Amino acid sequence: MSRTPDDPAAGPEREDEPETGPLRRCIMTRAVLPKERMIRFVLGPSRELVPDLAGKLPGRGMWLSARGDVLEGALNRGAFMRAARGPVTFPSDLRARIEDGLRARIRDLLGLARRAGQAVSGWQAGREWLQAGRAGLLVQASDGSPAERARFGGRGLPAVQPLAAAELGMVFGRDHAVHVVVAPGRLANAIRDEAERLAGFAGTPPGTA
């Protein structure tokens, strides 16, 4: 699909602010937010819209609040064309691609945490980390039983449910995993940020604090 700058919803305003500092302005809502709560987009060689989930691709970035409704509004109302000052093409399944990419990033981060000895899965190992005060984040299966998640404990800790039990299990070499505990630190923070971005697109709550 494509849009051109003469879209009736388009206007003269362009996102010209420098990409410096911890905050970015959403090209759709104009809200200024931490970049961890946003998605960066760049234009590819043929002016196709490319989501830059890691925020590292070359080119001028266009930042959007990490919410599905904001993405739909930006696509339908010409926000990307105004920011890019020209025509932009985008795939019809852009939202699904973003969600899949965020899930992949969460799996990769959990894999890093596991290999670094900063994450464990399973009821017994997870409970031991909770009782020892080694927990910084709970990652629980989105399709797990709410009653079981509540019974696991960890009240007062941030908790997210970004992946299904089969996806969590793949990371830890198991058929499925419902409970994962991550140690405090950079990886736990990154997993939480990605889970919250995913929740904004998937339309589900990221978890509880």
Automatic annotation (TrEMBL):
Region (Disordered), start-end ranges: 1-23
Pfam families: YlxR (PF04296)
SUPFAM superfamilies named in the record: L30e-like (SSF55315), YlxR-like (SSF64376)
Domain of life: Bacteria
Residues in YlxR domain copies: 24-99
InterPro entries (alphabetical): Ribosomal_eL30-like_sf, YlxR, YlxR-like_sf, YlxR_dom
PANTHER family: BLL0784 PROTEIN, YLXR DOMAIN-CONTAINING PROTEIN
Name listed for the protein in its UniProt record: YlxR domain-containing protein
Organism taxonomic ancestry: Bacteria, Pseudomonadati, Pseudomonadota, Alphaproteobacteria, Acetobacterales
